[in-house]
Amino acid sequence: MAPMKRYTSRSTKKEANYMPQMSELGKLPPQDTEVEEAVLGALMLEKDAYTRICDMLKPECFYDPANQKIYKAIADLAAYQRPIDMLTVTDQLRTNGTLDEVGGALRISELTGRVVSASHVEYHARIVSQKYLARELIAFSSEVQAKAFDDTQDVDDLMQLAEEKLFRISQNNLKKDVVQIRPVIEMAIKQIEEAKKRDNNMSGLATGFHDLDKITSGWQNSDLIIIAARPAMGKTAFVLSMAKNMAVNYNSPVAVFSLEMSNLQLVNRLIVNTCEIPADNIKRGNLESWQWDQLLTKVNILYEAPLYIDDTPSLSVFELRTKARRLVREHGVKIIIIDYLQLMNASGMEYGSREQEVSTISRSLKQLAKELNIPIIALSQLNRSVESRGTGNDATGKRPQLSDLRESGAIEQDADMVCFIHRPEYYLKTSEDGANNDIRGLAEIIIAKHRNGATDTVKLRFRGELARFENWDEKDRILDSAFNRTTSDDTPKQVPTQPLMASDALSNIQMTQEEFLSRRNEDVL
Predict the structure, then answer these.
(1) What CATH code is carried by the domain that includes residue 50?
(2) 468-471/456-463 β-pairing
(3) Which of the residues are catalytic?
(4) Does any domain span residue 3?
(5) Do 364 and 413 have their domain in common?
(6) Domain with 159 in it
(7) Peptide bond between residue 340 and the one before it cis (omega within 30 degrees of 0)
(8) Is the residue at 178 inside a domain?
(9) What is the mean pLDDT of residues 170-180?
């Protein structure tokens, strides 16, 4: 077959330079216009050809601007579910006002005469896509190289910009094929079998908070979990308590990105949490001799804990992606915690509002969770509407709602789970609610959204002086252990065979000497 007469596009100078020229390199950009023409001809030859390649190509994938316009006309016809052939494409180009620019009806007829069938259209489309991706990478690297030679450019800003653009290229060209259900079922069964082998029968990462783990079965891989609360509710204390449980009790590697607090402040909180010494004493260094002994003994469990802390301020989502990949690859990190989402940024991109930027950040976090196949927990602030609800001694009206999420409804949309922290005693003037229940130390974890499970409210105990959350029944459990008591209905509680010193329990729970001795005497009597 005689080669087709080459058409010189009448596109404007701007269109002709739709990507950076590479004359400086002495090479033409990667392209194959003959394959492009074969693809266009095949699309107009068979009615189902477009559906087979539509997810591979977009107009800018074509190197020749005229071919871009023809493909756009084909895509327009498909969008309106109209037939795609030589006549309809010619008519659509005429409607778009670009028929003359591509060479008129004669050019369209020449394209259809170029191919005999559309049997190889997918193979040819993949070539066009690969050439386009190569051009994108060359243009990207050339831009970075040019800016790197510019002494006025800040290197850190340039690195973030480069990473952001490379991320865009990879995301725009990320394609996943459909799979038959059989291998997916096999994966699901394998996951169930692995969960059965675990002592706790959980499919995800255990938090150490038993009632919470019962509802969630642990934090699940690829999930984005938002934990939100008003200031002073204990968001950081909650995730640090959880991170300590995971790293120390379950040996699960955890990464914490703290945008608000320095790594030293964070570690001090962990020391208070673990060593059970009031924060004020730690801050002032005002420790009794037994407290020093307790500090030096209990802090040992943190030394080798697989807990990684990054306190980069104003962390960008693109910088987070790079660090997260490295942490997973080099340290096997199983979960990432971010404190907190509103302090992050998406530098290198322009947004019309902060809400749009937060939307991009939350969407990127969800994509990162899927890419790394680990759960990501992001703390979030609630807006002030919480404070305006309810009056006086009414803590019920202060309970957070999904509509209270600050700055963006996209956070709720992107998250697989949204949890709120609510401490009623913070708002009440007394230590009792309307039902005369003692709520001192009560913290509620409200699961307001759970894409793959039930919503519910979980009780935890908050101990402010230790900046620690623990299981609601932890105090009773420690007492039962100290007094050698059992909680079974058919087994009588046992009396300790030896007298116990108050300091034995005081080192484990917050209790005055008088309270401890009173409880001990009750059991003995």
Answers:
(1) 1.10.860.10
(2) antiparallel
(3) 260
(4) no
(5) yes
(6) 13-172
(7) yes
(8) no
(9) 62
